[in-house]
Amino acid sequence: MFVWVGWEPEGMVGDRRYVVRRETEAMERTAECHCGSLRAIVAGEPESVDLCHCKACQRRTGTAFHLGATYLKDRVRLEGARNIYERDGDSGNRIRFHFCPNCGSNLYWESDRNPALCGITVGSFADPNFPLPTYSQWEESKHGWLDVAIVTEHFPQGRLPGPPP
């Protein structure tokens, strides 16, 4: 896949003028479950990265918060067998979690709130250079010892309705 980057400045070779079109390959990242059977391959940067402190995410992840990246579905390719767990989200919308049938790792989720988007667990990328989260939601359930000063937006409950930032 190639993404348009722009034109190089005009140049001269002898008496002929030229312009070079630059193209670069879109960044691709791969998220994997613990055993490597389920993968999500994404093109480009995420639409948003967030922390969620709701109790459902605490139970699902087995830790104090969830760290997720949102992508447009047309930039995500899933590979491997998966099972789906579906429930009502705190927003009132249905949410579906895709997990590996072999190791049980939750990798990918989608919601009826915005069918064009999906989310991928940031830890599944195992990339220490992944973009930082920009917002934190359901902070009314956040553990008191956790400092999330790194994010720019804080929401006591779910993020306000609308597309991700």
Describe this structure in words.
There is one protein chain. Mean pLDDT is 82; it is low at 1-9 and 20-24. The longest helix has 7 residues, at 55-61. Helix content is 4%, strand content 43%. The chain has an 8-stranded mixed β-sheet with strand order 10-11-12-13-8-7-14-15. Strands 5-6-9 form a 3-stranded antiparallel β-sheet, with no helix packed on it. The protein has a two-stranded antiparallel ribbon with strand order 1-4. A hairpin with a 6-residue loop joins strand 5 and strand 6 (39-43). The protein has one domain (28-154): Beta Complex (Metal Binding Protein, Guanine Nucleotide Exchange Factor, Chain A), CATH 2.170.150. By secondary structure, it is mostly beta strands. The chain is globular. The protein contains 1 helix and 15 strands, in the order βββββββαββββββββ.
- The helix/strand series, from N terminus to C terminus, equals EEEEEEEHEEEEEEEE
What is the alpha-carbon Rg in Å? 20 Å
| Oligomeric form | single chain
Biggest sheet descriptor? 8 strands, mixed
CATH topology (level 3) name: Metal Binding Protein, Guanine Nucleotide Exchange Factor, Chain A
| Unreliable residue stretches | 1-9, 20-24
SS field, number of helical segments: 1
Question: What gap, in angstroms, lies between the N and C termini?
Answer: 25 Å
Counting DSSP E segments of at least 2 residues, the number of strands comes to 15
CATH class: Mainly Beta
